[in-house]
Amino acid sequence: LALLGGIGARAGGAPVWKATLRHLLGALAMALKLSASILAHPDLDPDLLPPLEMDGYLTGILVTPDLDAEQWVAGLWKQIPDFTDERRLHTALVSALARRKTIETELQKGWPAFRPGFS
C-alpha cells in the first residue's frame, strides 16, 4: 500500500488508493459470501450457469422489458442437458427462479441498496 500512497486524491480529499482498497475488500467479501453459498448448496445442478454468470444473466432478464420465459429459460444452462430426469429439471428451475426472485427484490430496493456480486 505504501506504493499507492503517491496516487492522487479524489475531489473529496480521500486518496484514490483508499477507495480502491475499500472497493476490493467489498468485492472480496462478496466473493467469500458467494463461495460459502456455493459450498452450502452442493446440490446445485452442475450444468446451470456458474453463480456469478447466473446473477448477471438473471439481472439482465429482469431489466429487459417484455421477455417471455420461453425466450430466456434455455440460457440458464451452459449447455442444455438431456433432461430425462424431470426431478432434476424441476430442482434446477426452482433454484434459478428463487435466485431471480432474490435479485428482483434487491433491484426493487433501488440503486443505493442494490449490491451486485462484484460492485
Give the topology.
Layout: H1 16-40, H2 51-63, H3 69-72, H4 86-108
Distance between the termini: 21 Å
Arithmetic mean of pLDDT: 74
Counting DSSP E segments of at least 2 residues, the number of strands comes to: 0
Strand content: under 5%
Shape, please? globular
Number of helices: 4
Taking pLDDT < 50 over at least 5 consecutive residues as the criterion, the unreliable ranges are: 1-5
Main structural class: mainly alpha
As a whole number of angstroms, the C-alpha radius of gyration is 19 Å
Helix content: 40-55%
Largest sheet: none
| SSE string | HHHH
Can you give a write-up of this model?
With 119 residues, this protein is an all-alpha fold. 55% of the residues lie in helices and 0% in strands. It has helices spanning 16-40, 51-63, 69-72, 86-108. The protein is globular.
Task: List its traits.
globular; mainly alpha; 119 residues
What's this, in brief?
The chain is an all-alpha fold and 119 residues long. 55% of the residues lie in helices and 0% in strands. The N terminus is likely disordered.
